[in-house]
Amino acid sequence: MGGFCIRLTRLFLILSLFSLTGCLGTRFLKKDQKLLYKQKIDGVKRSERLGLEGLYLQKPNRKFPLIPFTPYVWFYQVGLNAYDTVKYNEEKEEIREKFAKRIKDKDPESGYVQKQRLKRNRKLAKVDRTIKEGNLMMRWGEPLAVFDSSLVRQTTEQFELYMNSIGFFQADVSSNTKSLAKLVTLTYDVDKGPPYIIDSLEYNIEDDVIASLIAENSEEGLIEVGANYNQATISAERERLYNVLVNNGYFDFSRQFIQFEVDTISLSDNRVLLRTEILGQNDDREHKVFTTDQVNFITDANLQVAGGKRTVKEYNGIRFQFIEDKYNRRILESRLLIQKDSLFRRSNTLTTQRQLANLDMFKFINVNYDTTGGQFVANIFTSPLEKYQTSGEVGVNVSQGLPGPFVNGLIKNRNVFGGLEILELTGRFGVEGVASASNEQDVYQSTELGLNASLLFPQFLFPLSKRLKRKVRNLEPKTNINTGLTFTNRPEYNRNSFQGAITYSWLNKRNKIYRFSPAEITYINSDIKSNTFQAFLDDLESRGNLLKNTFRPSYVSAMSFSVINNFNQYGNLAEVSSFLRYSIESGGTTQNFFEPQELTTESLEFYKYLKFNVDYRFNDPISSKVIFAYRVNLGLAYPYDDNKILPYEKYFFAGGSNGIRAWRPRRLGPGSYTPLDENGLYTDNFEQQGEILIESSIELRHNILGFIDGAIFMDLGNIWTLRNDPTRDGAQFEINRFFREIAIGTGYGLRLDFSFLLLRFDAGLKIFDPARDSGNRFIWDPDFNSEKFQASENLVFNIGIGYPF
Question: CA of 79: how far to CAs of 21, 134, 250, 532, in Å?
C-alpha cells in the first residue's frame, strides 16, 4: 500500500510538472530547445547582485506574482501568428496609392496637400513600426526565453568585467545549469577573490595653476585611501575635476585631458596606487584661462532687421541688442551671471539659461562663446514668446468621488508693465459626484466655479539695497499677488469665498523651493440648505462641539511658510528619487495685538491657529518594470482662540483615493470613535474632521501589459482631535493608545497610463478598523463583522487621476 501511494504521488508530481510547463509556454519550443525558467547569482552581496543583474544577456519570461504562468509569451505568440511582412508591405503600397489619388491634380503647395502628406506619413510610420517592432500583441508580450548557452558564456564574461570594475581583479565566475522537463534553472557562482584597496594617491599635473586649483578643492575628492577600488567612483572623480576646471575659467578644457593610471604592481597585498594625471594642451603644459571681454544679449534673435542694424544699448556692461525695446534691462541683467571681465564659469552659463527660461518670456535661450579676433565674447540669443496666450481645457475631474466634467480657461499677458511681469486670469467650472457630507450612501452633484487673477513679478516687491538685490538674484526671486473668488454648491450648503494673498518664492538650490506668504486673507460666507445637516450641527453644539461656527460668515487671516525639496527629480523611472514638503501656517496672528471686531460692525467668526504639515515621498525603481514607493504625511493644527475651532478647510480629513483607500472620503476616524445611528448601527453619514493627522502608504507598482499597470498597496493612518470632544468618544489623541488606533487597509489597483493622463482604479480592503470594538478590530477576528457593521463596507472602490503620491 505504501509503495502504491509513493508511485501515485510521483505520477501526480509528473502530471503537475507537465501542466506547469504548458502554462510557461514550452509548447512553443522547437525540437531540442529548452526554456530558461529561473536564474540567480550566488557569492555576492545584495548591492553587487543588483549591479550584476543588469548585465544578464537573457532573462526568464515574466510571470504573474505567485502564479507559474507567463501571459506575455502567449500575447507574443498570438501576435506572431498574425505577423506577416508581405501583408504589411502591401498595406504600405495601398496607403501610398490611396493618398496619391487624393492629391492628384492638386496644387503641391496647397494646405490640403500638405495635410494629406502628413497623414500619409503618419500611417506609413505606423506600419513601419509594426514591421520593425512587431504588431500590437507582440509589443505587449515578449518572445519565449529560449535557453542559449552562448549567452551564458558572454554573461559570465560581463560579470567578471563588472567585478573587476569594483575592485575584485581576481574574480572568477562560473555557471551551473539544471534541467527538468525542458525547464532550465541557471546559477552563476561568483568567486570574488580578495578586494583591491586604494593604498595611496598621486598627482601628475604639468600646469602649476591647475595643480594649485586641484589642491584647493581636494577635500571634495571622491576617491578615499583605504576604500575598495571602484571604476564608477573614478569616473565620478573625473567629472568632478572637469567641473572644477570649467568653473574656474578653463573654457576649452575637456575630459580627455584627465587620465587615471591604476598601478597594482608597485605595491603588494592587493593594494593599488592611483595616479591622477592632467595633460597639457597641444604640447603646451599650460591651459588657457578665459575671461569674458564682452557680453551681447539679443532679445529677439528670431526677428529680421529690415535694412538696418539692431539698436544697441548698454547696461552694467551688458550690450543689449533689439529691434523693439520692450524689456526692462535692469531685471534682465539681474538674471545674468555672465558678466563682462568675469572669469568663465560653466555653472554660470547653465544658471543663466535656467533663470531666463523661468521668466516665461522666451521660446528659446541659447548661450555661445566666440573666441575669434582674440577676444572672448559671450552671446546670449533669445526669442520672445507671444505677448498674449490663451488656453482652454475640458476634461473629467476625479478627486475623491465620482467623475465629473470640468472646463478650465486661461488668459496670460506677458510683460504687462514692461518689467517682465505676467498677468494670469483663470476660470474654472466643474461638476463632480461626491459622497454627501451628511449621508455617505447618497451621491450628489457638486458644482464649483472659480475665478482667479494673479500678477507675477520676477523680483521681490520689497525695499532692498542694490547690493542685496544683486546678492539674491541667484535665488530667482518672485512675488505673486493673487486674488480669487470661489463658489461651491453642495446639497447641504453653499460656501462662497474671496481670497487674496501675496507670496514670495525663491530657490536656494535647484531642488529646493521656498515660499513665504506674509498675508493671506479669506472671507467665507456659508448658507446651510439641508435641515438634516443643520440639525446635526445644532446637536453637536448642544453637546459642546462648536463645528457649527465654521459655517458662520468668517474672516481668516494667515501667514505661511513652506519648503519643497525635490531630490533627483521625484517620480523619474530611472533611479531613486524623493520629495519632501514641510509647511507652517499661522492664522489670526495680528489678532494677538488688536481686536478685529473693532474694525467691522458685521458679525464675523475669527480664527487663531497654528498648523504644521510634513509630507515625504520616496520612489525606488527596483527594475524597469517594478517600482517601490512609499509616503509619510503628518499634520498638526492647534486652534487657540476662545472657540477652539478651525476654519472647516483647515481641518485634516482621512480616507479616500489619495489617503487611506479602504475608507470612504473623509470618513475615517477620529481615533477609535464609532459613529452610530439611532438604531445603534455603524453609519458613515457625516464627514469626520480632526486636528492631528498620521498617514502612510506603501505601493509596489508593476507593469502588467502595455499601458496597463498594477499596484499592490497598504495604507495606514488616522486623524485625532487635540482636545476631548464630548460628541465623539475616543476621538482625542492620547500617547498611550494612539498606536492602537492606526487604521490599516490594503488592496490592489489598476492604472491606465496614456502618457498624457493616468487613470487609476483602486480597491481597498479594511484590515484593521479602530472604530470597531477592542479585540475585534482585525479582519480575521471572529466578530469583525458584528451586527453593527456591514461586511460590504470592508471593500471600498476608488477612482483617481494620477498617482496617489
Answer: 21, 8, 56, 59
Mean pLDDT of the 496-506 span:
92
Kindly report, residue by residue over 624-682, the tens digit of the pLDDT: 778 999 999 999 999 988 888 888 889 999 998 888 999 888 889 899 998 887 777 77
- Taking the CB of residue 72, how many other CB atoms lie within 10 A of it? 21
Nearest by Cα to 523 from 563, 487, 492, 565: 487
Residue-wise burial string across 135-171, b where 16 or more C-beta atoms lie within 10 A, e elsewhere: bebbebbbebbebeeeebeebbebbbebbebbbbbeb
**Residues ≥6 apart with Cβ < 8 Å to 432:** 397, 398, 399, 401, 402, 403, 404, 406, 445, 446, 447, 448
Bridge partner list, 430: 406, 448
309: its cell numbers: 542694424
- Cα 35-40-46 angle, rounded to 5 deg: 155
Among 56, 236, 272, 278, CA closest to 164: 272
The span from the CA of 72 to the CA of 76, in Å, is 6
Question: Can you list the positions of beta strands (E) in 674-789?
Answer: 692-705, 708-720, 743-753, 758-768
| SS3 category, 513 | strand
Question: How far, in Å, CA of 163 to CA of 47, rounded?
Answer: 12
Q: Distances in Å between the alpha carbon of 622 and those of 47, 58, 155, 359, 786?
A: 12, 18, 21, 37, 41
Write phi, then psi, for 8 (nearest 5 degrees): -65, -40
Indicate the residue type of 635: G
Q: Per the structure block, which three cell numbers stand in for 242?
A: 572637469
What are the CB-based long-range contacts (under 8 Å, 24+) for 171-174? none
Q: Catalogue the E-assigned strands of 649-725.
A: 692-705, 708-720
Within 10 A of 212 (CB to CB), how many other CB atoms are there? 10
Give the β-pairing of 183-191 and 35-42: parallel
Q: Other C-beta atoms within 10 Å of 788: how many?
A: 17
Extended beta strands in 268-307, E state: 271-278, 294-298
Neighbours of 586 (CB within 10 A): 16
3-state secondary structure 389-430: EEEEEEEEECCCCECEEEEEEEEEEECCCCCCCEEEEEEEEE
Whole-model pTM? Answer: 0.77
CB 638 within 8 A of CB 610: yes
Rounded percentage of the chain residues whose pLDDT exceeds 90: 41
How many other C-beta atoms can be found within 10 angstroms of the C-beta atom of residue 465? 8
Q: Which three cell numbers stand for residue 21?
A: 510547463
The residue length of the chain stands at 805
For helices 231-246 and 346-357, angle between their N-to-C axes, nearest 10 degrees? 80
Sign of CA dihedral 418, 421, 423, 424: positive
DSSP 548: G
Flag whether pLDDT at 719 surpasses 90.
yes
Residue 261: its H or E element: strand 258-263
Question: CA-to-CA distance for 513 and 190, rounded, in angstroms?
Answer: 46
Sheet holding 294-298, edge to edge: 311-315, 318-322, 294-298, 377-384, 362-370
For residue range 584-629, what is the model confidence (pLDDT) as tens digits?
Answer: 999 887 766 656 555 554 577 788 899 999 999 999 988 777 899 9
Q: Maximum Cα–Cα distance for the chain, whole Å?
A: 108
Q: Is residue 670 reached through a cis peptide bond, with omega within 30 degrees of 0 on the bond before it? A: yes
pLDDT at 669: 84
Displacement of CA 207 from its chain's centroid (Å): 44
CB atoms within 10 A of CB 226: 7
Q: 464: number of CA atoms within 13 Å, CB side?
A: 13
